[in-house]
Request: fold
Amino acid sequence: MNEVERCIIVGASHAGVQLAFALRTAGWNGDIVLYDRDPLLPYQRPPLSKTALSGEGTMKLMPLKPEQAYTKAEIDLRLGCSVCAVNTAEQSVTDDGGRKTYYSHLVLATGARAIVPPIQGSERAKNLFTLRDGQDVNRIRQTFNPLQSSRVVIIGAGYIGLETAASLKKMGAEVTVLEREPRVLARVTSPEMSAFFTELHRNHGVHIACSKNVTAINEREGVQQVCCADGSAYTADMIIVGVGVHVRQELAKQCGLRVHNGVVTDSQCRSSVPNIFAIGDCSLHPNAQYQRFVRLESVQNAVDQAKVVAETLAGRCARYEAIPWFWSDQYDIKLQIVGLADGYDRVFFRDESEGNTPSFSYWYFRGMQLLAVDAVNNAKAYVVGTKLLKSNAEVNLSRLQDLNTSLSLDALIAS
Ligand SMILES: Cc1cc2nc3c(=O)[nH]c(=O)nc-3n(C[C@H](O)[C@H](O)[C@H](O)COP(=O)(O)OP(=O)(O)OC[C@H]3O[C@@H](n4cnc5c(N)ncnc54)[C@H](O)[C@@H]3O)c2cc1C
Reply:
């Protein structure tokens, strides 16, 4: 059994690294052991489909913290090291080197892995990649040669698929995006936003094809074809699959934790076993604002949950009550989303574009309740939307639609 206070964190990405440092800030004096199977110094993931891929930034990944910071904060960082087993009775983990380490508290920050769906021939396909970690980006960049013909087919038009399309287009690729649903971003946003992003990509020369169910990847005489159920086929020198993720919840299952597309936690990120927590992409947690359980894939969620666990372990009362937000960069478009729009029954549009640069926002409501705001190149709408969501105040809808009313909390709150 563990004699000392030791927090073991499995996963050294946005959630795990934030937690390790936040524990020190919160005054935790016990040991901190931080594992990741990835051998690279923990790095930021959002740039992977953006600047790290397009080469605008350097090929180097952006570290979450400099290497010395871990030593200084007395964080025992074990990289290239997978945790394979947890023994909850004796409170220990065992890594792939057979080393056993005891914990007083265990935090699962294991995130998710990219899915490759069952597509006939995908296991033999040449230059087929997913995009989840730094090594994926390195492989894609090494394979991609803008001097040769580079026909890239991206399967899946979610945020990662579309950001990847924009980045590879900038690198000179001929890009086709195949989406099974009738519109891009169908799972995550409204038809209006889907239409905007479709047009944006088409204007940049990306071929977007929806209602395309990819069923096979065939190769004939050295030419690779991505084939769809409707008989269409697309030649591909490179294929990138961006159809979503599976939660890494094997360890949680092994521990006997409640799991349901994510490790089920309470508002303190505590799992069904009191000294085991789950944070970040792998956690399914209650959201007070929307009164349901959600699993979010966003940096903000990972960071905020880590702070809650650090406060909790330091003996203070903290709850995760943040309003979800997310961003996406494609070409010169910055999309900021606050809140969760699903279940909306009406949407209001505000266009504040000047010249050729679009700047607008969509405001999603259920009845009189504001659910979410999508802001395109419009930081003000995002900030005011966030404040309105936090205040839970009723919005004056006629003022919201009146472009002569400036975007401010005072102006938009119904009186
Ligand atoms: C290409 C890309 C672009 C993105 N863009 C944005 C964006 O613009 N905005 C935004 O908000 N979010 C974005 N995200 C999502 C964001 O990066 C994730 O929400 C965030 O990384 C979640 O952090 P996490 O620590 O929970 O999980 P992850 O980042 O998935 O990290 C989990 C870590 O756990 C490790 N691990 C798992 N199991 C074990 C084990 N048994 N032993 C040891 N280590 C283990 C894994 O190796 C991994 O490093 C993007 C993600 C990707 C992939």
About this structure: The first helix runs from residue 14 to 26. The chain has a mean pLDDT of 94.
